[in-house]
Design goal:
With about 80 residues, the chain is mainly α. Helices cover about 60% and strands about 0% of the residues.
């Protein structure tokens, strides 16, 4: 029997991280599409990240932070965790 992969959608930590990414993106005047392009991430995947639907890999977090001109640790600090 195949193992079912865990669902991370709605996880409070991911929702907070996604909200921090969205708020920072908007504060910098970037569209979701522009940030996705700068970070070399698919736009629909970026939308899922911002909604807390994806358990993003550390490399994607680093690419997003770099595209926003900040350290990944700063984004994590904004989650309050």
């Amino acid at each position: 029997m195949a193992k079912k992969s865990p669902s991370f959608s709605g996880n409070p930590a991911l929702v907070c991280l996604g909200a921090a990414i969205r708020a920072t993106r908007k504060a910098k005047g970037l569209s979701q599409e522009a940030l996705a392009e700068l970070a070399d991430i698919d736009r629909s995947y970026m939308g899922g990240i911002e909604r807390g639907e994806h358990n993003l890999a550390i490399m994607n977090l680093l690419k997003i932070a770099d595209a926003l001109g900040m350290k990944a640790s700063s984004l994590l600090d904004e989650t309050g965790g």
